Predict the structure.
Amino acid sequence: MLNNDKIISYIDNSKALEPFRSISKKVLNGSRITVDEAIVLFETADLGYLGMLANHVREVKNGDNAYFNKNFHVEPTNTCIYNCKFCSYHKHSSDPESWEMSLSEIAKLSESYKDKDITEVHVVGGVHPKWDIDYYGRIIQLIKKQLPNVHVKAFSAIELEYVIKKANLSYREGMKILKEYGLGSIPGGGAEIFDQEVREKICADKATGKQWLDVHEASHLEGVPSNATMLYGHIESYKHRAQHMEAIRDLQDKTGGFNCFIPLKFRAQNNKLAYLGEVGTSEDLRNYAISRIFFDNIQHLKAYWPMLGKQNTKLALSFGVDDIDGTIDDTTKIYSMAGAEDQKPIMTVDMLCEIIRSAGRKPVERDSLYRVVKEY
Ligand code: V47
Ligand code: SF4
């Protein structure tokens, strides 16, 4: 760990870092940077400098700990009424690659994890035209019946907005009902980039940024925490990224309900934005570092390894990241269908620990609320 005095003296004596001196001082004093300062960092700061500052923030917030959990996913359907251009996952119900899990299939899958020490089930899928809030509730209920001690993290704000609106309920009423069924938290999906002009180009027909934020606010107010994501590396500008993060930071000031922030790199296979290609690793790491520097009020920064790949996940642990998600057990298709390296995403606890140790960090198994389960 570098101490503050060493970093301050390095920054004070470096001519190259002169333009960033006031930003550096703010970060080292634990003060908040502005959207404009974040844009300056995105546009001009080099990777080494960003890594140093982000590492400082991560060590103040989380020491050397790097978290993971034992989890699996349930993806009940890839049929979706929406048509996001970056999505390689959704299919029309007539497509041979589409699927719909019945309640008994979901129960059977959950039952197969009875003896596996899992602490979290992550449920997310397409927005099925025929499903409603009661069906979502029954999915949660039967997972809890098979696995009473697991935390169910379920349904993106996009899925929730659709079924809650369909039931003519307020977001708070909808979240209250799902909490009663056993919902523990909601995942961060569907946020993409909040800016409406960008949304119109990449996901015109689904919930707006404001609706995403309103669903998460309602969830927090009902005592259901959540995660926040940002889909980057497509048509958005740095200003869009900084403004997106500001909206999340503002909501966190109000509710304190976000557990972690998860940047998601756009993967470019088999979707309508494939022509854009993908950003490189250096851009990924710069984005993690600036996220860590920006969020003074969100405790954890996650690199989702099935999306990023194992090698880059290890690198991300030196650029602000303190969480790498979980074992997954080959139960998600969102990223393999979009061209991610791991076509069968699965990691044992030993493999997760090895990645963390090889990055010089300390592996800690957590539950969904970041309570320590076991230190390795
Ligand atoms: O909202 C879809 C993204 C999200 C692509 O909360 C893509 O712990 C990149 O939100 N390239 C769903 N990204 C997944 C998600 C998530 C993942 C892991 C952990 C958590 C959590 C949440 O996946 C979507 C969208 O932003 N996505 N297609 C793609 N081609
Ligand atoms: Fe549907 Fe989600 Fe894919 Fe958009 S990203 S098309 S909402 S499954």
About this structure: The chain is about 45% helix and 15% strand. The pocket of iron/sulfur cluster (ligand 2) is lined by residues 80, 82-84, 87, 89-90, 126-127, 158, 203, 206 (CB under 6 Å). The chain has a mean pLDDT of 94.
